[in-house]
Amino acid sequence: MALELLFLLLPVAALSGWWIGHRSRPPSREVEVPEIPRDYIKGLNYLLNEQQDKALDLFIRMLEVDPDTVETHLALGSLFRRRGEVDRAIRIHQNLIARPTLNREQRAEALFELGHDYMRAGLFDRAESLFQDLIDSEPHTEQALVQLIDIYQQEKDWDKAIEVARKLENVSGRRLGPVIAQYYCELADQARRKGETARAVKMLRRALTVDRACVRASLAEGALHMAAGNLKAAIRAYRHVEEQDPDYIGEVVEPLLECYRRQGRSHDMLDYLQQMLERHGGISTMLALAELIRQERGDEAAAEFITDYLRRRPSVRGMDRLIELHLANSQGPGREELGILKEFTTSLLADKPVYKCQSCGFAGKTLHWQCPSCKRWNTTKPILGVEGE
Questions:
Q1: Burial category of 311 from C-beta neighbours within 10 Å (exposed 0-12, middle 13-18, buried 19 and up)
Q2: Rounded distance, CA 281 to CA 277, Å?
Q3: How many domains does the chain have?
Q4: How many Å apart are CA 6 and CA 90, to the nearest integer?
Q5: Sign of the CA dihedral 75, 81, 85, 88?
Q6: Which of 35, 93, 173, 201 lies in the 20 to 30 Å Cα band around 354?
Q7: Element at 228 (helix H, strand E)
Q8: Exposed / middle / buried, residue 308 (Cβ in 10 Å: 0-12, 13-18, 19+)
């Protein structure tokens, strides 16, 4: 509907411009009948013959660029970009920039819009060049820096992303430490894949320097130390997560258990799990503690522990494990009924997401440090409650 309206408005705008120009001429003694421009008639013929591209080009040429029509051209280009017709948007904005009548502010606005066109078209090198030029052009400095960060994120050029993010901090006064820490984590991940463990650890240390609450850096550091056999350092990194954000404790329970097992300190782990459960709760912590109890004191003691916890904090995962324990120690008709319940809880858990973005609500079973939907960093967290942690 918007496009059809546009093609109705363009001829009117072009004709209005011609009519105003005609009326602004000095009055003549003779009454003249204004003649409709031939190009206007030609454009209408294009529309009637469904040659919309030709009609658009013609009407844009008729709509002369002057201080009164610049905003019309900018709006027209933005409209096409939003509709996904990027080639048309680029053509309009390039045509606008080529006009010598634009003042400095209008030219900067047209360049900014053209940069958006290039971004939408995936022409990041061209967009980068335009936004770099606009950094020193108020009022587009902050917006240009934001767009450059977006480009470098998509290109995974994290060094440049860090550099520009620091500039944006200075210009805007916004605290971007948590986002910059994620960029350092990305650099650490690149180094890890290349086998450059020392550099990876160095990048994670920088991440924690700019954001002490960066859970991702602690998890990654713990994994690196654990893989290298440095269990003491791994435990220290994993236990730091509790101080940073208790909502992520479930992410460290299993690796911590493994580290303590390798050191022969399962009892110390049991004490630590009890402390975490008292301070924060959490189904992952409870289940890990229940498993240690089962190993030391048997299935019945573990089932009793889980039952007591579920009375206070209902959980589908807890119920699933409790049914599993009873199923292993039951006979006769009761076993069949428990089997049906187990199938139900297993199916229910299989269909449920584990993580959810606190910004846009995107949910899934993978922990994304940058939300795949809204592209924001540090917004995805484990789901809490009956169906979560």
A1: exposed
A2: 4
A3: 3
A4: 17
A5: positive
A6: 201
A7: none
A8: exposed
Same structural domain, 306 and 387: no
- Residue 46 has what pLDDT? 54
What was the pLDDT predicted at 214? 97
CATH number for the domain that contains residue 124: 1.25.40.10
Tokens of 227: 């893989």
- What is the Cα–Cα distance from 306 to 360, expressed in whole angstroms? 34
pLDDT, tens only, 47-102: 455 565 666 665 566 555 555 667 777 777 777 788 788 888 888 888 787 777 77
Residue 65 has which token pair?
A: 């660029």
Determine how β-strand 363-364 pairs with β-strand 355-357.
antiparallel
Q: What pLDDT sits at residue 73?
A: 73
> Minimal CA–CA distance to 299: which of 286, 290, 310, 311?
290
pTM of the prediction?
0.78
Does the residue 121 lie in any domain?
Answer: yes
Q: Are 151 and 119 in contact (CB under 8 A)?
A: yes
Residues 362 and 324 in one domain: no
DSSP state of 377: B
In Å, what is the CA distance from 81 to each residue of 85, 118, 121, 170?
5, 10, 9, 31
Question: Can you tell me which residue has the tokens 């022409």?
Answer: 123
Beta bridge partners of residue 364, listed in sequence order = 355
DSSP 8-state code for residue 195:
T
Q: At 325, which amino acid appears? A: L
In-domain check, residue 328: yes
Q: For residue 347, tell me if it sits in a domain.
A: yes
* H helix intervals, 214-332: 215-227, 231-244, 253-262, 266-280, 283-297, 299-312, 316-328
- Residues facing 363 on adjacent strands: 356
Token pair recorded at residue 276: 């975490």
Query: Tell me, what's the pLDDT at 62?
Result: 54
Residue that finishes a domain, picked among 154, 172, 197: 154
Domain final residue pick, 123, 154, 185: 154
Domain that holds residue 111: 2-17+36-154
Taking only the tens place, the pLDDT of each residue in 264-286 is 998 899 899 999 999 998 999 99
